[in-house]
Amino acid sequence: MNYLNEGLLWLNDPLNWTNPGGVLDRLGEHLLISALAVLVGCLVGWPVGVLLGHRGRGGAVIVTVSNLTLAVPTVALLTILPLTPIGFGKPPVVIALAVFAVPPLLANAYTGVRQIDRETIEAARGMGLSGGQILRRVELPLAVPYLAAGLRTASVQVVATAALASFVNGGGLGQIIAAGFGIGISNGGAGQIVAGGLAVAVLALLVEAVLAVVQRLATPRALRATAPRRRPAVTAGA
Amino acid sequence: MSLLAVPDGPGNPWFSWRYVNDNRETILSALSFHAEVTAQAVGLAVLVALPLAVLAYWVRPLTGPILALSGVLYTIPSLALLAFVAPLVGVTTRAAVLIALVLYALLMIIRNTLAGLEQVPPEAREAAQGMGYSRFGRLWRVELPLALPGIITGVRLATVSTVALVTVGALIGQGGLGDLILGGFRNNFYRAEIMTGTILCVGLALVLDLLLAGVGRLLTPWQRRVRA
């Protein structure tokens, strides 16, 4: 518990928050990188997932994609992408994180459309709606709770994984932990390591809590009983 | 040794056999360290997770708290777990990585084991009771075997993500193949080293996954008959 005290002591120093490269700077970087990555993930995962669900095929592809990304280490993508034509800076970090955001978004979008009662779709068709109209007016609104569930899983995961960006000097709260290890325990770096760990952990739990509320709000009251499970069993690690 | 091996001929290719040949021993020791840490982490996680899952299955009021606790541990980023554990057990020890990995793998095994136990048909449970099995006998002879597909799924998921997660240990020089990946990055962006580490890492995950899938098939012969 001694180290925990050191960590709280470190966090209690206002300069550690306001200095350049302090907690506030790193938090801003962390949130910016994560938001961009989730955005990119949504732009890719949602349309593809909804379309595959609408067509009713591609389930096997989705399972394969999510299993494959589970096996790829984040650290590897973070180090490989800057050496490709993408170059250094924020874009490779954002893309690396987005790659891991896509599977939960994709899978939930697909499930969200597939779980709709076939009778509902047939009723819509009987009312004379075209395929595109069914997609926009029936399937999308009914899939919203699942889209929200995917958003929650993906966001929590990206926020957690973004801590690893520090391995390639990509910024974010992980940088505080890395700097602490750089100082070393014997030189009093332990406080900073634990403080960085606390910051990252608290942020991940906060994002989880906030998005749980969002997910609940996005689910119409009548559907809450049948809403998607807390989280799908298949999620990649961070 | 690695100082001499920096640029491989002209340019900086993504893969080079020369690098692999020159550094065979480093690569092999990284690979075996990686496999060893993965096996230890998943093994320990199974030893902790199975009793917890059974407890959650037997004692209904504990189901929620056990799932919630492992969910929280899972949500905490691996790097943060490492940051909490490392100062306690010593920064450059393998134990730090191992503990963080075990905590992380728990959720997948507990959740899938519990799901497996819960889908044991009530008839099977009642029949076992009627045959006079005790609670433990029923668990050992009837419920756990029937829950095996769920358990295997959990262990496979945990193994694949643990293989990927070991690389995070590279931060404290205990990352196995992750040390190659990060080392290559720091060593003037030596692509061949990064790529070799990555390929072996993904390969190890796939091999272990297939291996466990095979074990699962051997352990549950009745499932094959149903499918055939």
UniProtKB/TrEMBL annotation, chain A:
**Per the annotation, which location comes first and is thus the protein's main one?**
membrane
Going by the entry's taxonomy, the superkingdom of the source organism is recorded as: Bacteria
Residues annotated as transmembrane: 31-52, 59-81, 93-113, 158-181, 193-214
Q: Which residues form a coiled coil?
A: none
Which cellular compartments is it found in? Cell membrane; Membrane
Q: Please name the GO terms of the biological process aspect recorded for this protein, alphabetically.
A: glycine betaine transport; transmembrane transport
Membrane topology, record value: Multi-pass membrane protein
What are the UniProt keywords, alphabetically? Membrane, Transmembrane, Transmembrane helix, Transport
Per the database record, which ranges form the ABC transmembrane type-1 domain? 27-211
InterPro entries documented for this protein:
ABC_transp_perm/SBD, MetI-like, MetI-like_sf
Question: Is Transmembrane helix given among the entry's keywords?
Answer: yes
**Gene3D superfamilies listed in its UniProt record:** MetI-like
Family matches, as CDD domains: TM_PBP2
Q: Which GO terms describe its cellular component?
A: plasma membrane
What is stated as this protein's family in its record?
Answer: Belongs to the binding-protein-dependent transport system permease family.
Q: What is this protein called?
A: ABC transmembrane type-1 domain-containing protein
Organism from which the protein derives: Spirilliplanes yamanashiensis
From TrEMBL, chain B:
Residues annotated as domain ABC transmembrane type-1: 31-212
Q: Name one GO cellular component term.
A: plasma membrane
* PROSITE patterns the record matches: ABC_TM1
Q: Which InterPro entries match?
A: ABC_transp_perm/SBD, MetI-like, MetI-like_sf
Q: Which residues cross the membrane?
A: 37-59, 66-85, 91-110, 146-174, 194-219
Q: Keyword annotations for this protein? A: Membrane, Transmembrane, Transmembrane helix, Transport
Q: Does the keyword Transmembrane apply?
A: yes
Q: How does it sit in the membrane?
A: Multi-pass membrane protein
In Gene Ontology terms, what is a biological process of this protein?
glycine betaine transport
Cell compartments where the protein resides = Cell membrane; Membrane
Q: What SUPFAM superfamilies does its record include?
A: MetI-like
Q: Which family does it belong to?
A: Belongs to the binding-protein-dependent transport system permease family.
Stated name of the protein: Glycine/betaine ABC transporter permease
UniProt source species: Spirilliplanes yamanashiensis
